[in-house]
Amino acid sequence: QVQPVESGGGLVQAGGSLRLSCAASGTFFSINTVGWYRQAPGNERDLVAVITGSGSTAYADSAKGRFTISRDNAQKMVYLQMNSLKPEDTAVYYCKVVVPGSGSYWGQGTQVTVSS
Predict the structure, then answer these.
(1) What is the four-CA torsion angle of 28, 46, 17, 95, rounded to 10 degrees?
(2) What does the pLDDT look like over 83-108, one tens digit per residue?
(3) Positive or negative torsion for Cα 87, 89, 91, 93
């Protein structure tokens, strides 16, 4: 019913930028809270940024000042603009869509690798 799909990952040099995209389907997207999470090998999956249906945002300390989450409800898209990337940002990045009265739905993830 709900199938988030991430894209935009890749290999970049430290200091560079990437924009990740999360495309949703099967939901009334404008009311959904969407979060970006990341998981590095051997680590837990941690929240990076979140945006509500009304546009309120919050960020992990590691992302503040460098990452920006935004959404385009008409296109059912959520973006994560990542600037000033560091090797520590290397991880698989996942999109999670929260559907009221249903649950949380995860995408398959997109790999971000930041080289020194």
Answers:
(1) -20
(2) 999 999 999 999 999 998 899 999 99
(3) negative
